Structure formats: C-alpha cells, structure tokens
Amino acid sequence: MGDFHELLSHLRQHLEPDLQRSNATDSHTAQLEESAEALAYSVIAHSCSQELTPALLHALLPEELSLHQDHLASAFDCKEVQALASSLILHDRTRHPPDHAGDAFLELWGLHETLLAHSSRSTNPSMTLQKMRGSYYTPYSLVDSIIEVTVGAWTAEHRNAARCPNVLDPTCGNGNFLLRAARYLSLSTTTPHQPSILEHLCGFDIDPLAVYISRLRLSLLMPKAATPEILTSTIIVADALRHLGEEHDNQRYDCVIGNPPFLNMLRGGAEVLAARRASVSEATTEELRKLLGPYSDLSAIFLQLSFSALRPGGYLGLCQPISLLSARDSEKIRSDLNSRGRLVEILIDTDQSFRAAVHVCVPILQRHLQNRADDDLQPSSPSSPWSSALVAALHLPKVPRDLRVRGSATVSDVALVAADFRDQYYWITQNVIDLNDEFDTRTHAAVITTRLIGSGFHRWGAQKARIGGIEYLRPAIVRPSNTETDRYSEWLRSRLRPKLILATQSQTLELACDIEGSLVPLVPTLSIFPRLLEDLYHLLALLISPALTTIALNRHLGGGLSPRALKLSASNLKELPLPLYQDPWDQAATLHQRALSSERGLDTAERRSLLFESALLMDQAFGITSEEGSHQWWLGRLDL
Q1: Looking at the predicted structure, is the pLDDT value of residue 619 above 50?
Q2: Which residues, at least 6 apart from 581, have a Cβ–Cβ distance to it below 8 Å?
Q3: How many other CB atoms are there within 10 angstroms of residue 189's CB atom?
Q4: DSSP secondary structure, 228-239, as one string
Q5: CA 277 – CA 522 distance, rounded (Å)
Q6: N or C, which end of the chain is more exposed by having fewer CB within 10 Å?
Q7: pLDDT > 60? residue 374
Q8: Residue 21 CB burial class (10 angstroms; 0-12, 13-18, ≥19)
Q9: Read out DSSP for 595-625?
C-alpha cells in the first residue's frame, strides 16, 4: 500500500488549488480526497488499457466525483504518476494474478476495500468507512456460484426468450457481480442479443468511487458496447433501499444478485443501521415495516425489498450473515418469503473467505409463478425452517421419516429451562476466584463455561477457562449464606441444584451433568432442571442423543458463529420433542446413571462406547431404524 499512498500524494497536488480555495470543511475535503482516489484509478486504468481514453474516463465519473478535464490531462502527463501506477500494477499482479486477459481491475483486486478499511470519517476511530458502509467485496468463486444458480437457471428456463434477463445488483460495489454476470451472458450460447447485454444490467451503490470502478471495469470488459450513456444510466450512485422501497413490488427484474452490507448491532452498526433503515420506513408500506424485527440486520432488509423487485419465476441470490437462517428477528421475513416463493437452496461460504468477521450464506430464492399451476414453484410452508436447507448444503442428515414422538409432548413437560443474562455474567466475573485448595461443595461452587462442557461431562479443574478476559484452572465462587437475600445470592441458590448445563456454539448437543447441584452456569450456557429428580438421567440420554441433535440441526442450525455450530435459546430447547417408546429410553437413562456413578470415571474410549450404546437405545425410543454407520457423522462431532 505504500506505493498507492505515494501515488495519491502526487495526485493530490493537482487538487491543491481547490483545497486552497475551499473553506476546508470536512465534507468538501472528503470529496476531494475521494476525487483523488478516483483520479488514481483513472490513471491506473489508462495505463492498463489504451481503450480507456481520458475523455471516456472523465465521462464515466459520477457527479459526486466531478473533476475538471485539466486535472485528468495533467495527471496523465505526469511521468512520476505514470511510473508509480505501472509499479503498483506490477506489484499487484504478483499478488493477485488475473484470471483472464483484458480486465485490468482483476489485478487490483481488493485495493478499494483496503482503502475503506483504513479510512475513517467518524468520531469513532474504529468505525472505518468499510464498517460504516458494510463494504466487504465478494470472492469470485462465490460470485460465480451465485450467478450459475440464478442467472444460469433463468437462462436455462428461458432458452427461447427474445431478450436477456434483467439483472440487478442493489449494492454493486466495485462491480464483481455485474462484471461476472455480463461475462456469463456473453459466453452463453442461449443468450440472445449479446451486444445489448449491458442495457439489461442495473447497479446501485452509495459509494461514488465504487460506482466509478464498476463503470470502468465494464468498459474494459465490453469496450464497444459500454458507452457512457448506457453505463451512467444503469450504474448509479444511489441508495437502493430508497429506490426499491419507492417502487415496492415493482417486479422489474429477472435476477437480483449481490452482497448487501452487513451491519452488526453490537459492533457500532446501530447508529448507521438506524439512518439507513429510515429510508425504508419512509418509503415502504406499513406491511413491509411489520416484517422487520427490532434487530433486523440491514442485509435482511435488502433481501426483502429485492425479492419484491423480482418478476414471477425470477431468481434472487444475496449474501447474508449465517444468522439470517434462524434469528428470531428474521423469522417474519423468512415466513413472508416462503409464502411468496420457494427456497431453492443455500450456498455456504464454508472457508469464510470474506474479510468480514462473519460466516456468510446465500439463500437462493425463486418467486412463484402467478396464474399458473406448477407444483415445482408452489410457495413453501410459511413455517418451513431455512436451517433444513443449510443442513442439506453441509451434507448433514435430515430428520428421519420414521421418527416417532410422544404427541405434542416436549422437553418443557419434563424440565424447566433457564437462560441467564449479562448482569449475572458480570457479577460472576467480579467475584470469581481460582481455587488452590481442595474443592468443598459446602463453601464454594464451581463455575462452568461452554468451553468446559463436553459430551456428557465437564473439564473443570482439568482445562483452563477464560472468564472476563482472565484464565482460571479452577474457577469458583463462594456460596451465599442462608441469611444473604440480595438478588444475586437468591439467583445463585436457584442455580445450585441438580441439573444439566447445555453448551452453546457446539456441533452436537453437549451437556454437563450436575448431580450434586454444585456447578454454576456461566452465560451463555442454559440450565435444565428436571421437574422430577429421577428424570435427570432421562433428560441427559434424550438431549445427548443423535436423534435430538438431528432435530435441533434441522430446526435451528445457522444461529451460531459457525455454519456447523448449534446455538439454542431456552425456548428452542423447550420445544424439542420427547420419544414415543419408554422402555429403551429407560435403558439409556440407566446407562448414563451407572456411568456417572462410577468413582473412577470413564476414559475416552469408554465414554465413546457408552454414547454409542445410548444412541442406539434412543433410536429405538424414537422408533428409528438404525443402519450400520448411520451415526458416524454424530460420533465424529462429539467432544470427548
């Protein structure tokens, strides 16, 4: 990046007269800085392709980045600038080899994203432009996959169509999706009227420099067809939320693709999100606003509005945070989309190739056809869980068809489930100690974190846990006396009784069994108290079984930090079903009771054998016909 910053410093000298004449306001200075960046891209593009003349580069500039013609001319005449641009191009080519000739900006992959990541125009220094805009550009492998199952699916279904599909990217950024869509359509033997492909593309972005880059890249890809008139009228500096909201349910596009901004409410995105959502609330109907939960991510709003822009039979593929699949605040949006179309599949970015600290999924949706009987395009059930599509994408098992449950009976009929909150967490972090002496359950209680919970056991005293940023080997808290009546003492006494403690962010349902009531659960674990004490081992056998993990995966996968991790709420857990047949359930419970009563404990091989035998019995309890090797996926995910 040193070369680029040096290049910018040379280019800014061409803007110095404007800077001197300005009142040095922040907004004007920011515009001039963006203009300098745009000028840098112009020089680089011109160096890479003689087809992009100074006049054409100037014609493609958005009004928001207006530059005088003499600025461009003087920059191109500057030998130092040309030399630095060439040096930067050669440097970038070694890091990011282009995958096809003629697209100069493939050689500059990620450059604008890096600039955004280092630019801050907020009072909060950590809130960079990249975070404020949610601008994280998409790897080409995922872009191509999305185009194949959206644009590719549409063209396959409309081989005899007299036109190209109308393709929208509501947040086009530097043009990855539009560029690859144009290339896909130009190479497709079924695409009619190839010279007019660009007229069927549409892109919006709030970043004028990103729009400029998109126009330049499309000009490089199709220099004869990409006239300034076409590109400036279809790749536009605008907030697509307002555009789509004002034309709600306009059904203009055959395919909507892209990577809308993700804005996390807990990491500085609340203020930015509120400002962007104001565009939606002012422009859309009351019906749409009812679908948005208080913590709906900005990307989910783009998903909802973009789906309304689809024509009947059209396809949508927008990148979304993995939480969309099961988050409570996205439930109404998922239900609404299920009622108006079908979830075709879900693509998963399993390698987390984005620079954003979030796992990404791409729901592929098709709007159902109107006035036509077509079983394949009938809407899904409004309650269809999207987690099932994620399960299929990760090649995990579906809920067995022969599963037999006890009517409407659920875990809530045999247990109380409790979740704790931040104030309890902070109270424990302020009072936790690391025990050096022998653990005495009469005076202390052991603190259990998710990290310490395995498949049916815990590692307290054998593995360190991090609490409040400090590592403890034997974290504990003093038991309250009977005379202490403050709310934390009463809360602690309510937790110190026989129970199971469920971990979160685990690949199976992982629980620690607290027979003596001497363990304190730390947020975000869940506490499960049997209504009858003798049901403690029945609950353990049930919840740790592959049958319950399979049901939980198909209902709630996607709520964790990883695509493969389960994160259940208390209500999710309470709604899990009970098995139909009692005898094998009793036998499985007896196995766990005997194992936990052993003074010496179990080694890894013995624990694995116990869990497998219990799994087969719980299959019988649910009426499932077990096949040899059917639980290998589950055994491979256990924490032993």
Answers
A1: yes
A2: 404, 620, 621, 622, 623
A3: 6
A4: HHHHHHHEEES-
A5: 35
A6: N
A7: no
A8: exposed
A9: HHH-SS---HHHHHHHHHHHHHHHHHHTT--
C-alpha span between 258 and 218 (Å, rounded): 16
Name the least confident of 146-150, 207-211, 225-229, 241-245.
241-245
Residue range 52-108, pLDDT digits in tens: 777 788 788 888 776 555 566 666 666 665 665 555 544 444 433 334 333 444 444
Taking the C-alpha atoms of residue 496 and residue 137, their distance in angstroms, rounded to an integer, is 49
Distance CA 107, CA 391 (A): 36
Cα–Cα separations (whole angstroms), residue 22 to 14, 25, 30, 36, 154:
14, 7, 12, 15, 51
What is the structure's pLDDT at 27?
A: 53
- Report the distance separating Cα 363 and Cα 318, nearest Å: 7
Q: What percent of the chain has pLDDT over 70?
A: 70
Residue of 130, 179, 184, 123 whose CA lies nearest to 152: 184
Cα–chain-centroid distance for residue 58?
37
d(CA 277, CA 247): 16
Instruction: Give all strands (DSSP E) within 425-464, no chain letters.
Output: 433-434, 444-448
Label residue 251 by pLDDT band (50, 70, 90). Answer: confident
In the block, which residue shows the tokens 């909507």?
256
Positive or negative CA dihedral for 227, 232, 236, 237?
A: positive
Residue of 164, 140, 141 whose CA lies nearest to 152: 164
- Which residues 6+ apart lie within 8 Å of 470 measured at CB? none
Neighbours of 1 (CB within 10 A): 11
Which alpha helices (H) appear in 136-255, and where do they start and end?
A: 140-149, 151-157, 176-187, 208-221, 228-234, 240-246
Mean pLDDT of the region 153-166: 87
